Amino acid sequence: MRNKKLQAEAEELNLAPIMNLMVTLIPMLLLSISFIKLAIINTTLPAYANDMGTASTSNKKLNLTVAITEEGLSIGGSGGIIGDGETSIPKLEDNSYDFKTLSELLRKIKDQYPEEWSITIVPEITSTYETIVQTMDAVREYQTVSNSGRIERHLLFPNIAIGGGII
Amino acid sequence: MRIRSRRIKTDDSLNITSMMDMFTIILVFLLKSFGSGSVELKLAKDINLPSSISNKAPVNVVSLIVDKNSIVLEDEYIIDHVNGKIPSQYLGDNNLEIIPLHKKLLKFAELQKKFNPKKAKKIAGKILLQMDKNLNFEILRQIMYTAGLAGFDSFKFLTIKRDK
After folding, report:
1. Is the pLDDT of residue B129 over 80?
2. Which of A81, A104, A107, B127 sits most deeply, having the most CB atoms within 10 A of its CB?
3. Is any Cβ of chain A less than 8 angstroms from the Cβ of B15?
4. Residues of A with CB below 8 A from B134's CB?
5. The overall pTM is greater than 0.95
């Protein structure tokens, strides 16, 4: 009878040291963890980026550029396949840039030239860094939501170069 | 009549099994999050980074910080700027080259080649730029031009990741 009681008591595991370990580990990890997720955007100086991808359908380069001005955005292909003409995208009513339309227009160009990967962004000297990053997002890729609710990424022009700027 | 008193046995020890379960789950979650961030980055204090939908993880290359007031290269203060304007005495003839930054970049690349050739090969020509989102393109253009002169032609703009 007494032996049985002793056996039952011995089976109980002493969790206190493990608890001590947990109490030390969790604050340590909480201190060293970063809650802000960071990401990078790759870009190069113009000459290098333009050499990375060219339209295979022709020897002539597409020379696709997106200019950021006070009035809005404009897509151009100076001396390239799509000609010298520019497509302007004026600012929205709230004075913000219309990145949605920019993305849609670039998708049409991408459908025509699927082998083209390079683009040059030419900001105005007064354009903010935030606007440049948003433009880079719009020209690099677009996202669609699948039936299962998953976000799918489709590349547009990932080889982005930043041009000299409009003074 | 004899009243039989029944002693109620109480268990004084704390049942910590459920607490252990909770701690184990938290620990696994934290260890997983801790392991995913492979690159250790020093974030500047006086800076508002822009947000981006990019999903590329940061890399450990030459760190250049342009905060609201100054330019810092690899923890070394270079110069101050006033609202994105570099004082003219620090600029070259074409108003694009930032002379102190150019010198420091060349010196940094040279020292890396001399003392840490393995790392120098890995980071050659690459700059991780942390820049305040409200600064204008003028200072970015000057920095890119200067970096290009010093042989750094690939830039990685650090941003805060957003899903959509």
Report:
1. yes
2. B127
3. no
4. 128-130
5. no
